[in-house]
Write a structure and sequence with these properties.
Elements: H1 28-45, H2 50-70, H3 78-89, H4 103-117, H5 124-134, E1 139-140, E2 143-144, E3 157-160, E4 167-171, H6 175-191, H7 196-210, H8 217-230, H9 243-249, H10 251-262, H11 273-307, H12 314-326, H13 337-344, H14 348-361, E5 364-366, E6 377-379
Helix pairs in contact: 1-11, 2-3, 2-9, 3-4, 4-5, 4-8, 6-7, 7-8, 7-11, 9-11, 13-14
C-alpha cells in the first residue's frame, strides 16, 4: 500500500520555493508611473531649504513609525514619536527639556533610522538588533519571547478569531529551515539586481513567509522594505513617502493579499504577481500622498511668507498653525469664537478682537452661509 502524499498548502512547501514566480511584464507600466512620481518628489524637494526638507523628513518618518505599529494594533502618541526623531535629527531641538519621547519610541526610532540611513549590507546580527529595538521586555502579553533570536516553536501559526472559532491563516516555516532561508533572503537583499520596487515587495513577502521571530515579523518585514527602498534616495537623506501609512489605509487588503499569496490552496499557480501588483499600487499611493502633503506644505510656507511681518500675536499664530497643521479641510466645522477660546484660553472679548483682526488682515474669511452665533471662518490660503 502506497503512503498518502503529504498535503502541500503553504508557500514554503512548494518545490520551487524560494524561487518565486511572477510576470514582470505586467508590472512595467506601474513601475514607470512610480519612477515618474518619485522623480516629481525629487524635483519638489529642490524647492525647499535644508531645514524645511528636514521637517518633511521627520514628519514622514513619524508617519512611518506610527503606521507600521498601527498595522499590528500598537498605538503610540504622535508627539512621543516626533520628539524621539527630533532628538536625533533636529539640531534646534532641546532634548534636555523633552517631555514626550519614551524609551519605547526612542528604540523604534533607532530601528527606522538604521534601516533608512545605514547602507551597509543586511546581516543576521542587524536583523536581531532591529528585533531588539521592538521589545523593551521579553514578554508579549502572557508569553515569553525570544528577543533578538529566532523562535524555537515549530507550530508558529498566524491565527484570528475568538476562542473556539480560530481561523489559521498561515503556518510558518519549520524552525530547522529558518537559518538557511534567512541567509538566502539576506543574499537576495544584498546582491540581487532586480528592480528595487519589485525587490522590496519580494523581500517583504519572503520574510513574513519565514516568520522567524516569536513576534514583530510584520514590522521587521516593513523595515526591510524601507531599507531596500532607501537605497534609491538620492537627493534627500530619507525617502519622502511612507509605505506603512498607505498599507495601514488598506490593512484588510494587506492581510487578504498575504493570505491569497501564501496559501497554495488559493494560489495554486505559485504566482506572486498579484502580490507585487498590490504592493506597487500601495507604493504609488504613498508617493501621491506624499506629493499632496508637500504641496500643502508649500501652501503653508507661502501663507506665512505673506503674513510673517503682520505683527500677529502669539495666540493668533498658535491658532493659525493649529489649523494649518491638521489641514484647512480637516479642521472640522471651521474656526468659531468658541473654538478660538478653547485653543487660547482667553476671554470672549479678546477672542472676538483677535479674530476680527485676522479677518481684516485677510488671514481668515467667513464661510459662506454661516451667520449670527454660528459664524465660522476658514484660513485663506491664497
Amino acid at each position: 500500500m502506497s503512503k498518502n502524499k503529504p498535503i502541500i498548502k503553504w508557500i514554503w512547501q512548494h518545490p520551487d520555493y524560494p524561487t518565486f514566480n511572477y510576470d514582470k511584464e505586467k508590472l512595467t507600466k506601474l513601475i514607470a508611473e512610480i519612477e515618474y512620481h518619485r522623480g516629481t518628489l525629487d524635483g519638489i524637494s529642490n524647492l525647499f531649504n535644508k531645514d524645511d526638507i528636514r521637517r518633511i523628513e521627520i514628519e514622514t518618518l513619524t508617519d512611518e513609525a506610527l503606521n507600521t505599529s498601527l498595522i499590528e494594533g500598537e498605538i503610540f502618541k504622535r508627539e512621543s514619536v516626533r520628539s524621539s526623531f527630533r532628538k536625533k535629527l533636529d539640531k534646534d531641538f532641546d532634548g534636555r527639556s523633552d517631555k514626550y519621547s519614551t524609551a519605547t519610541t526612542d528604540s523604534l526610532v533607532e530601528l527606522l533610522l538604521d534601516c533608512s540611513l545605514n547602507k551597509v549590507p543586511l546581516s543576521l546580527e542587524r536583523l536581531h538588533g532591529w528585533h531588539n529595538c521592538l521589545f523593551e521586555n521579553s514578554y508579549s502579553r502572557l508569553h515569553k519571547l525570544n528577543i533578538a533570536s529566532f523562535r524555537e516553536n515549530d507550530d508558529m501559526e498566524v491565527v484570528s478569531g475568538v476562542i473556539g472559532h480560530e481561523k489559521v491563516h498561515y503556518l510558518a516555516v519549520p524552525v530547522s529551515h529558518i537559518e538557511d532561508d534567512i541567509n538566502k533572503l539576506l543574499e537576495y537583499c544584498n546582491n540581487s539586481n532586480e528592480n528595487i520596487y519589485i525587490k522590496s515587495a519580494i523581500a517583504h513577502l519572503w520574510f513574513v513567509s519565514i516568520h522567524p521571530y516569536d513576534d514583530g515579523n510584520g514590522r521587521i518585514s516593513r523595515a526591510i522594505t524601507d531599507y531596500i527602498l532607501s537605497q534609491g534616495s538620492e537627493l534627500t537623506q530619507f525617502k519622502l513617502y511612507s509605505i506603512s501609512t498607505a498599507i495601514n489605509a488598506d490593512r484588510k487588503g494587506y492581510y487578504d493579499m498575504l493570505d491569497k499569496t501564501t496559501n497554495l490552496f488559493r494560489n495554486r499557480e505559485f504566482d506572486i504577481t498579484p502580490w507585487l501588483e498590490w504592493n506597487l499600487h500601495i507604493l504609488k499611493d504613498s508617493m501621491l500622498n506624499a506629493l499632496k502633503n508637500i504641496e500643502y506644505l508649500i501652501e503653508k510656507t507661502r501663507f506665512w511668507d505673506r503674513y510673517r511681518n503682520k505683527a500677529l500675536n502669539e495666540r493668533q499664530v498658535k491658532v493659525l498653525n493649529k489649523i494649518l497643521d491638521v489641514g484647512v479641510g480637516n479642521f472640522e466645522g471651521g474656526l468659531s469664537t468658541k473654538k478660538y477660546i478653547a485653543l487660547t484660553k482667553v476671554s470672549k472679548a479678546t477672542a472676538v478682537r483677535d479674530m476680527a483682526q485676522l479677518v481684516e488682515l485677510g488671514c481668515i474669511e467667513q464661510i459662506e452661509g454661516s451667520s449670527g452665533r454660528n459664524i465660522r471662518y476658514l484660513v485663506k490660503l491664497d
